[in-house]
Amino acid sequence: MHLSIVVPCMNEEGAIAPLVDRLCAVIAPWAHKAEIILVDDGSTDGTWEAIEDVRLFHKIVVGVRLSTNRGHQIALTAGLHAAQGARILMLDADLQDPPELLADMMHMMDQGYDVVYGRRIERQGETLFKRATAAIFYRLLNALSDVDIPHNTGDFRLVNRTTLDAVLAMPERARFIRGMFAWVGFRQIGIEYTRAPRTNGETKYPLRKMLRFAMDAMTSFSTKPLRLATRLSFASLGVAGLMAAYVVRSLILFQTVPGWASVVLAVSFFSGVQLLTLGILGEYIGRLYMEAKNRPLYFVQDELRETPPAKLRESA
Ligand code: UDP
Ligand code: MG
Questions:
Q1: Which of 94, 187, 239, 259 is paired with 114 by a 20 to 30 Å CA distance?
Q2: What residue's CA is closest to ligand 1, atom 22?
Q3: Do both 99 and 113 map to the same domain?
Q4: What local confidence, expressed as pLDDT, does residue 311 receive?
Q5: Cβ(177) to ligand 1 under 6 A?
């Protein structure tokens, strides 16, 4: 197999047919050695039926159905595991990332790059809020982590087998895939594009999921927040020192009764610092706990493909 295209889909029933049509046009040069892997991430609409329908006409489509919703990054991981290609393209089901870039990406990979990632120079149809939070997030992430994760990239990228195997060898469950690809190294290059608005349906990333995604990214790639506790303790010791000086001054001037304001201030400041650092500890400990359980990332309920995967063929 030369090329695998991996697409995680959650409640994308309306997007499947247009997606496959557009992909088929793009992969024509490699169609005889290509597969399109659609991962149904526990959809509650007709996504799986849409995948079954599209397979009637397009045998290169492989359907993988997860037992329940596991989230975008894990659905993508399931698709990457199923991929057999020497080169693998990842993209979203909503066609926000133009598959037409594939030819250019393949060309760049021919020149010796292991990863060609998409860089959004413009995001159409995304709210100011989303763009602003994304900008802050990437700045913060890069300030905190030692890995240089390119700004304005998503999961839209073409990778070769070497890099994919490297990323799949990373067993963690808090998976921030774009960061993992940045972390493994190899020869990487960006390709710029304009991100189109969603063609169909609505975003599957409400604020709640976005925040969790951001926390996973931060905690997976940095332990600096843990050290924040030490720094804050220095800061609060400094404030406590100033307070002590103030107390001594009040004693000398016989002004010992007033001062509830400074007490309230001190109490609220220090309890704030304590709660914050406890919260940070909690984020890491919670993740340690989840990782330590080492449960499988997902379960496959159904898999539809023309020929069984190579591994199964050998053992059959
Ligand atoms: N997705 C998924 N599982 C989820 C959430 C999203 O498989 O729990 C898929 C979704 O179907 C889409 C991709 O992940 O193909 C990106 O989601 P979306 O386009 O909603 O994110 P946005 O572009 O708004 O950030
Ligand atoms: Mg999208």
A1: 94
A2: 203
A3: yes
A4: 56
A5: no
